[in-house]
Amino acid sequence: MKIGFIGLGNMGAPMARNLASAGHEVVGFDTAVVAVEGVEIVASAAEAAAGRDAVFTMLPSGSILRSVYEEIVPAGRPGAIFVDSSTVDVESARAAAARAEAAGIGALDAPVSGGVGGAAAGTLTFMVGGSEESFAIAKPLFEVMGAKAVLCGGAGAGQTAKICNNMILGTTMVAVCEGFALAAKLGLDSAALYDVVSTSSGQCWAVNTYCPVPGVGPKSPADNDYHPGFAIELMLKDMNLSQDAAGLADASTPLAERATELYGRYLKDGGQGTDFSGIFPWIQGRSNTAD
Ligand code: NAD
Predict the structure, then answer these.
(1) Does ligand 1 have an atom closer than 6 angstroms to the CB of 115?
(2) CB of 7 shorter than 6 A to ligand 1
(3) Could you give the 3-state DSSP secondary structure of residue 261?
(4) What are the residue ranges in the chain where pLDDT is below 70?
(5) Distance of alpha carbon 272 from the chain centroid
(6) If you measure from the C-alpha of residue 33 to the centroid of ligand 1, how many angstroms do you get, rounded to a whole number?
(7) CA 142, CA 136: separation in Å to the nearest integer?
(8) DSSP 3-state assignment of 35?
(9) What is the pTM of this model?
(10) Of 35, 5, 33, 34, which Cα lies nearest the Cα of 19?
(11) Which residues pair with 124 in a beta bridge?
(12) What CA–CA distance (Å, rounded) separates 35 from 16?
């Protein structure tokens, strides 16, 4: 297929490279100066979209996505498909899709999990919102860049699945950190607590796969001085998206609200550039009377 790829950063560059190495003809655009193996870099987003069968975007935010769509929808070919894989707010995802569909262009929101490692290895998971017809067209491309693609529902459903999953992860990680911090202050060995919780009703991904305590459980960022992994900045972005969505949808999420606030404080208090599980030593260092 003739593919345009807009946003060639940490995620977009390896994704575009994988499409090119699978034999697709890929042109790309980024506002920064970039070079991606197998991808012809063009001078504008409109040029990257013009005449293409499929156009991917992998951008930092919903407002940037909306402004890029203003530019690429008029340039796009009716009958083409536009796929946004950025993590953005549900409203922007729906607005971008409506803008494309009004011009006769198929649209999907398809955020990913799997991080930079998954993007490089072509093992991402795509959570997709849009029509079955558009999904069927994009599926072979998802198969090049990922290991799994799930059609979750209509426009915005992919972003909804992504931010709810990450809200659950972010909130459970704080709960896990609190459990291990309390146990340590009560004199319980962390390895003993891990042995119990990882096979008991407290088990979850944050304990069993990504334990925030150094030297406990399978290897995780905690064993690498909290080098990401999944950076605190990205977790906070997703937690904030969940809280914006909860406000708009009138959903009660007080635990996630508190977890979001704690991640924000940890970030300001020296967390920059660390994995989100680096909140564990920060929580452990707080006293019971801290606000
Ligand atoms: P990044 O900052 O490395 O890349 C974004 C790229 O978009 C940059 O190269 C930037 O120059 C470019 N850009 C900005 N404005 C542009 C415009 N108007 N036109 C063209 N290009 C523009 O970010 P990333 O880590 O690649 O993440 C991209 C998206 O994927 C984000 O929405 C992020 O939340 C999401 N995501 C990231 C990860 C991760 O582990 N990095 C994991 C899952 C999802």
Answers:
(1) yes
(2) yes
(3) helix
(4) none
(5) 18
(6) 14
(7) 10
(8) coil
(9) 0.95
(10) 5
(11) 146
(12) 11
Cis peptide before 229 (omega within 30 of 0): yes
In whole angstroms, what is the distance from residue 229 CA to residue 251 CA? Answer: 30
Please tell me if the CB atom of residue 285 comes closer than 6 angstroms to any atom of ligand 1: no
Report CA-CA distances (Å) from 43 to 33, 80, 215, 266: 10, 21, 49, 40
**Selected catalytic residue, list 2, 139, 148, 162:** 162
- Can you give the pLDDT at residue 291? 84
In whole angstroms, what is the distance from residue 116 CA to residue 149 CA?
17
**Which residues have a Cβ under 8 Å from the Cβ of 201 and sit 6 or more positions away?**
none
User: How long, in residues, is the chain?
Assistant: 291
Tokens of 62: 């919903």
pLDDT tens for 267-283 read 999 999 999 999 999 99
Please give the Cα distance from 237 to 217 (Å, whole number). 27
Ligand 1 in contact with 63 (CB < 6 A)?
no
Taking a C-beta distance cutoff of 8 angstroms, is the pair 278, 263 a contact? no
